[in-house]
């Protein structure tokens, strides 16, 4: 069961990656000769009541819809991460695994797996949640290679105000993929945003991308200009994220670079970033 430590670490790095304003309308008090009963005190009470109601209505914390957080894919990822946090904490098992080569066709190669206990846990999770294993990882160098290799539509369309540049990525046999790139956005100001864009195909056990603790984020729903519903996530000392769901996929965008210090989910640039992708092009 010993695996080559160097290869394991490379795979681990590949898999790592680590989404309501109150409105106050001013009432207009119309004086009328038949309304002489209204006093200054009553008017003041109305103002106090209005202010009290405004204070009571606070923007509520939104959590991405249960189809995401209760999905087998999300739950499986969470269970695996809990297992890893308590497993081989001193690295002794990894050290014992040594540098022996990985056998051809080893089916756990995508999971940074180096012991029989880890293999057994992966099998247990897949059986529990009805998921299949990732397989056939390949590096992609161009955006066109990604589209042809996955069969998805053109989701990084350029426009007058949006210019995409996909740098590199990797994909699996089932169409799960991750790309890194940057996009130039022209709105009230111009900014260039670096990002990681992951597509997780439903029905596959993926140990990265979906390992999110929503208690660490403020979240709000947003509808893109193309009419797609997404969630924008921000947290203190956390990279902002954008989450979308399609019929067959979960999509997670990890925002890097210029926008990494944003902690306000209402930031205009995050909306611009969400608008820069055509989520409907990914089934």
Q: How does the SSE layout of this entry go?
A:
Blueprint lengths: L4 H11 L24 H17 L9 H4 L2 H14 L6 H6 L18 H14 L2 E2 L4 E3 L2 H8 L11 E10 L5 E10 L3 E12 L2 E2 L12 E6 L5 E6 L6 E5 L3 E9 L10 H8 L8
Parallel strand pairs: 1-6
Antiparallel strand pairs: 2-3, 3-4, 4-5, 5-10, 7-8, 8-9, 9-10
Describe it:
It is globular and about 55 Å long. It has helices at residues 5-15, 40-56, 66-69, 72-85, 92-97, 116-129, 143-150, 268-275, and strands at residues 132-133, 138-140, 162-171, 177-186, 190-201, 204-205, 218-223, 229-234, 241-245, 249-257. Helices cover 29% and strands 23% of the residues. The longest helix has 17 residues, at 40-56. Mean pLDDT is 81; it is low at 1-60. It is of the alpha+beta class and 283 residues long. The strands form 2 sheets. It has an 8-stranded antiparallel β-sheet. A two-stranded parallel ribbon has the order 1-6.
Q: How many beta-strand segments?
A: 10
As residue ranges, the low-confidence spans are: 1-60
Helix fraction, binned, reads 25-40%
- Name the quaternary structure: single chain
Quick one: biggest sheet?
8 strands, antiparallel
- Secondary-structure element string: HHHHHHEEHEEEEEEEEH
List descriptors:
alpha+beta, 283 residues, 8-stranded antiparallel beta sheet, disordered N terminus, two-stranded parallel ribbon, 8 helices, 23% strand
């Amino acid at each position: 069961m010993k695996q080559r430590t160097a290869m394991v670490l490379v795979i681990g790095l590949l898999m790592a990656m680590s989404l309501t304003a109150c409105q106050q309308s001013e009432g207009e008090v119309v004086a009328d000769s038949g309304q002489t009963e209204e006093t200054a005190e009553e008017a003041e009470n109305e103002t106090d009541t209005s202010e009290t109601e405004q204070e009571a209505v606070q923007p509520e914390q939104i959590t991405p819809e249960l189809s995401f957080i209760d999905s087998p894919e999300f739950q499986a990822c969470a269970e695996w991460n809990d297992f890893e946090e308590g497993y081989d904490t001193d690295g002794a098992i990894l050290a014992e695994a040594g540098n022996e080569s990985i056998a051809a066709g080893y089916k756990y190669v995508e999971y940074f797996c180096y012991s029989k206990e880890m293999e057994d846990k992966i099998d247990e999770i897949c059986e529990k949640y009805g998921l299949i294993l990732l397989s056939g990882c390949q590096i992609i160098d161009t955006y066109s290679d990604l589209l042809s290799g996955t069969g998805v539509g053109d989701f990084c369309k350029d426009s007058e105000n949006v210019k995409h540049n996909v740098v590199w990525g990797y994909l699996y046999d089932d169409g799960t993929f991750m790309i890194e790139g940057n996009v130039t956005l022209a709105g009230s100001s111009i900014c260039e945003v670096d990002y990681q864009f992951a597509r997780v195909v439903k029905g596959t056990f993926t140990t990265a991308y979906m390992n999110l603790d929503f208690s660490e984020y403020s979240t709000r729903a947003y509808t893109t200009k193309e009419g797609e519903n997404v969630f924008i996530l921000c947290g203190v000392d956390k990279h902002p994220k954008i989450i979308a769901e399609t019929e067959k996929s979960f999509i997670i965008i990890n925002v890097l670079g210029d926008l990494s210090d944003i902690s306000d989910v209402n930031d205009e640039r995050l909306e611009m970033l969400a608008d820069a992708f055509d989520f409907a092009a990914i089934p």
